[in-house]
Amino acid sequence: MRLSPATTLLRPPAAPAAAPIPSPPRCPIDYRIPGSLFRRRPVINLKRILVPTDFSESARHAFTYGCSFAREYKAELLLLHVVENLTVGYASDLFPVPMAEVFDEISGYARAELAKLGAQAKEKGVGARELVVQGKPSAEIVRVAREETADMIVLGTHGKGMLDKALFGSTAERVIRRAPCPVLTVGLSEHEFVEEA
Q1: Who's near 125: CB < 8 A, 6+ residues apart?
Q2: CATH fold of 48-85+94-186, please?
Q3: Domain map (residue ranges) of the chain
Q4: Are 125 and 19 in contact (CB under 8 A)?
Q5: 184-194: per-residue pLDDT in tens?
Q6: Where are the alpha helices (DSSP H) in the chain?
Q7: What is the mean pLDDT of the chain?
Q8: 3-state secondary structure labels for all residues of 139-195
């Protein structure tokens, strides 16, 4: 059927053809994850902690720190006391001193005190060994740390008395310079981050 001109004018215009949707550009996508996300952080591995002591207040403070580290990392605690070489004083010929007996007496006292510290450590779940040696403190501390393959030394910074404070401070300095492992020095005025259990 033929449409009249009027009918043709009333017909709605045809919708324009939809434009084709452009396809996304073919570009490579990197699915790799940065290796830094999987990079292992440094792990602190402490198996043996050496705590030298002269039974002073400062050394007792160091023992608290050493014991806490040992418990945290399930490490063995090695308690060390160094008996300094005994020297024969003036007029020793007139008043002979049985040096071996003196050393045995001092060593016996040291072993008894170390045993007390070892018992306290074991009460906190820390395995401990006690060791008494003779010699120069700084040299013996370094030697024992090396022979026992200690992973850390925890050392008080002051000893007993004014003279001993100066000497023990010097001992700590020598140990720091020569130690085969990290050294944590603990002073009485330290900021506390370890509490007694």
Answers
A1: 71
A2: Rossmann fold (3.40.50)
A3: 48-85+94-186
A4: no
A5: 998 876 556 56
A6: 5-10, 57-73, 99-123, 137-147, 161-178
A7: 78
A8: HHHHHHHHHCCCCEEEEECCCCHHHHHHHHHHHHHHHHHHCCCCEEEECCCCCCCCC
The residue written with tokens 């060390």 in the block is 80
Residue 177 to residue 139: CA distance in whole angstroms: 11
CA distances to 29, 32, 86, 179 from 139, rounded to whole Å, are 62, 53, 16, 9
Q: Which two tokens stand for residue 89?
A: 């004083």
Euclidean distance between the first and final Cα of the chain, in Å?
105
Highest mean pLDDT among 53-62, 84-93, 147-156: 147-156
pTM of the model: 0.69
Residues 88-114, buried b or exposed e (16+ Cβ, 10 A)?
A: eeeeeeeeeeeeeeeeeebeeebeebb
